[in-house]
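Worked Example 4.2. Consider the chain below.
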Amino acid sequence: MKQEWTHCYRMRPYFRNVGLAGTVCSLAMTILFFVALWIQPANHPVNAPFLIAISLLFTALGIYLLLLHHRYRLFVSDSAIHQTGVVRSKTADLRVIGELKWRFYPLGGSVRLSGMCGVLSIDALSIDALSIELGNFNQQDRQQLISFLRGAIAESKQVGWQQFSEQFADTPKKRTLSIRAQLIFAAIFAAHVVAFGLIWWLGGGSQFLLFSAGNALVTVYLLRSYCRKRAEIGNNTE
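Applying the procedure from the previous section yields the following structure tokens:
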């Protein structure tokens, strides 16, 4: 019998943006290090290969984030949850949930669904637990998903809700602190832009210009996010 899903959740654009920026910057640095090794191989017998390996690693991480944003889906219905990742999909039967644990980690919190008698799945690939990272979603989807889980699972089976709700309650004070933190991080990355740009200008090498450009992209993103959230708070207080 085909399952009818009532809602589909996707990852917030943050992961796509970070993956794209990380991939482009890391790939550019990889090319730069290859050029440096080709031009002056005798002067870079160890440093260039090591830097190339590091930049390739970050390029791979950026590509993974892009794939994750493209592939990830979380489908929900009154009786089941289906999670699609990069390499694996999981389906959980809400009727056999033994415990729903509200957790503070990673950033944004998460939930862990455990099955009774070690069985949670309703498909051929049996699983005993399903974890959902709530920080993957935008604020509206996150709150909607939390409300759904609170209502779909018996309260007697939920663990840690009181502490979770106190930690992650969406209050004006916490929203204000959140956007102030973004402004602080934007200032830090802006300082990196100036520092790396100055090192490049003083003859430190083209890689520092790339570092400066990468930090500039992050600064612009954080400032745009800061302005958007400030506007949202202003609209909510009117």
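Residues 11 and 210 are 28 Å apart (CA to CA). The chain has six helices and eight strands. Compare this with Example 4.1 before moving on.
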